[in-house]
């Protein structure tokens, strides 16, 4: 049996919130089962609203990381950070919401794993690379090491295939030279990510392309 429910609980509660008044009106008509009206009367509308607001960012996170037409590997780390921030204790919470918030925090830490590859991908996003709120110095060091290892594994293969690429390029080919429109940068859920995405303002000269990137502006 698969225990994955995604956001179906949230969708159910949203549907109930949107239709609660109409359902209560229908339940109050003569001949309707009186048990239904009693059950509807037990619904705490304030608690329903607060629970929905607590769960909504998880719906945003699911959509952001489930995109199939744009890269999302670099969004894993900032997404977890935003969810952790969202789950911070709030003094105005009732006991039920506060307990749900604590439970979600435990589950997030347990099941939302961020690997070195995710951190490296975030470092390669110019809007994130200099944001200390996203990448700690330790994470930056780990990410640089991960990227260098990937480059060292990839570059020899590139050199070996250079002769094949030269031979292929020398052969006449039917190429469609029609210009393709540039890919648009996908819009982010700015309300969800807040100020995590920033633009670097520093610049420096360096012979190392990776170091140059890390020290340069977008």
Number of distinct beta strands? 0
Q: Which structural class do the helices and strands define?
A: mainly alpha
- Percentage of residues in DSSP E strands: under 5%
Give the helix proportion (percent range). 55-70%
Question: Helix and strand succession?
Answer: HHHHHHHHHH
Task: Determine Rg (CA atoms, Å).
Answer: 25 Å
Question: How many helices?
Answer: 10
Describe the structure.
The structure is a single chain. The chain has 218 residues and is mainly α. The protein has a domain at 72-158 and 190-218. Helices cover 59% and strands 0% of the residues. The chain contains ten helices and no strands. The longest helix has 24 residues, at 137-160. The model is unreliable at 200-207 (pLDDT under 50).
Name its key features.
218 residues, mainly alpha, 10 helices, 59% helix
Summarize the structure in short:
This protein has about 220 residues and is mostly helical.
Explain the layout of strands and helices.
Blueprint: H1 8-27, H2 34-41, H3 45-65, H4 76-86, H5 95-111, H6 116-123, H7 137-160, H8 162-170, H9 190-193, H10 209-215
Helix pairs in contact: 1-2, 1-3, 3-4, 3-5, 6-7
């Amino acid at each position: 049996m698969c225990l994955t429910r995604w956001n179906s609980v949230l969708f159910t509660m949203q549907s109930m919130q949107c239709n609660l008044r109409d359902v209560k009106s229908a339940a109050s008509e003569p001949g309707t089962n009186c048990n239904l009206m009693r059950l509807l009367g037990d619904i705490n509308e304030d608690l329903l609203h607060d629970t929905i607001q607590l769960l909504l960012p998880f719906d945003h996170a699911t959509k952001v990381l489930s995109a199939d037409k744009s890269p999302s590997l670099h969004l894993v780390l900032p997404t977890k950070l935003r969810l952790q921030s969202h789950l911070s204790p709030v003094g105005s919470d009732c006991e039920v919401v506060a307990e749900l918030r604590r439970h979600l925090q435990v589950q997030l830490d347990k099941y939302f794993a961020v690997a070195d590859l995710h951190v490296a991908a975030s470092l390669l996003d110019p809007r994130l690379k200099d944001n200390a709120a996203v990448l700690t110095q330790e994470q930056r060091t780990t990410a640089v090491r991960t990227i260098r290892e990937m480059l060292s594994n990839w570059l020899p293969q590139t050199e070996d295939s250079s002769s094949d690429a030269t031979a292929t390029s020398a052969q006449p080919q039917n190429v469609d030279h029609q210009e393709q429109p540039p890919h648009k940068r996908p819009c982010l859920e700015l309300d969800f990510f807040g100020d995590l995405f920033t633009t670097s303002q520093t610049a420096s000269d360096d012979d190392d392309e990776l170091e140059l990137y890390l020290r340069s502006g977008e």
